[in-house]
Specification:
294 residues, alpha/beta, OB fold (Dihydrolipoamide Acetyltransferase, E2P), Rossmann fold, Ribonucleotide Reductase Protein R1, domain 1, 3 domains, five-stranded mixed beta barrel, zinc, Small ribosomal subunit biogenesis GTPase RsgA, metal ion binding, rRNA-binding, Ribosome_biogen_GTPase_RsgA
């Protein structure tokens, strides 16, 4: 019995990394019977009957987290790629991404692209938002088109971590992926075909070694809804609200109409940004309007 990590899943096979080698494995039938499925990123126990033969995954170790789209487990962090222009910076979309990542206990890193497209006035307008997110506790990386120092700045961020990229289309995810994985040697715009978006290719997720860490060779999440978040859990997904909520009079305070709510007081005092609180209320309403699941 040996242990390793699944680095790639393709056509029913799982490729387990062990001492720099990839072992082609199948999953035991018992996983199907239990409704379980091994995921890329899983740490597993496997057996190989004879040298050179396929292995069999016998056991999946407990996961820190797991995503459905892309199907991947044990993610440490996500680089949220947001352009500041074309498309313009969008705080409500960024907050949606941040909330979902917080709910999965995945550390978000905000990467702002195309900074050089901003005029001085636009830069001045954007700066308070950058300062806000840094004050909340998020790392913010500012990048430029053809940014020669990008790889150098990302190496310490990626080292020793398992990372996925996320962001809407057109923000520069493909360019960033090309910078991090030059072995892909692909033109921007063609990358989707390599990743399984072409008509005749199989979509798959792969963890690739880069800068002393692992990077998911995938264009990121396609699902950023709140299906798995309950209303009582939403406060914890806004770090500055979570810190302040400890002083609310009532346990389980949702910070809407409750008396002696420390969060509402902090918003009025300007200690919590009004736009973040408004996004919280909007997301809360979305969760409360969600159809019950049976």
């Amino acid at each position: 019995m040996a242990t390793g990590q699944i680095r790639k899943a393709l056509s029913g096979y799982y490729y387990v990394e062990k001492d720099g080698q990839l072992i082609q494995c199948r999953g035991r039938g018992v996983f199907r019977n239990r409704g379980e499925s091994p995921l890329v990123g899983d740490f597993v126990e496997y057996t190989v009957e004879t040298a050179g033969s396929d292995g069999t995954i016998q056991k999946i170790f407990p996961r820190d987290n797991e995503l459905v789209r892309p199907p991947i487990a044990n993610i440490d962090q996500a680089i949220l790629v947001f352009s500041v222009k074309e498309p313009n910076f969008n705080t409500i979309l960024l907050d949606r991404f941040l909330v979902v990542l917080e709910s999965f206990h995945i550390q978000p890193i905000i990467c702002l692209t195309k900074m050089d497209l901003l005029s001085e006035a636009q830069r001045t307008e954007l700066q308070p938002y950058i300062d806000d997110y840094k004050e909340i506790g998020y790392d913010v990386i500012e990048t430029f088109i053809d940014d020669a120092s990008l790889m150098e700045r990302l190496v310490p961020v990626l080292e020793g971590k398992t990372t996925v990229l996320a962001g809407q289309s057109g923000v520069g995810k493909s360019t960033l992926l090309n910078t991090l994985l030059p072995s892909l040697a692909l033109k921007t715009g063609v990358i989707s075909q390599h990743l399984g978006r072409g008509k005749h290719t199989t979509r798959h997720v792969e963890l690739m070694e880069v800068a002393g860490g692992l990077l998911a060779d995938t264009p990121g999440f396609s699902s950023f809804d709140f299906d798995t978040i309950e209303r009582e859990e939403l406060t914890a997904c806004f770090p500055e609200l979570a810190r302040t909520a400890e002083s609310c009079k009532f346990r389980g305070c949702l910070h809407v109409k409750e008396p002696k709510c420390a969060v509402k007081d902090a918003v009025e005092a300007g200690e919590i940004r009004a736009y973040r609180y408004e996004h919280y209320l909007q997301f809360l309403e979305e969760i409360m309007d969600r159809k019950p699941r049976y």
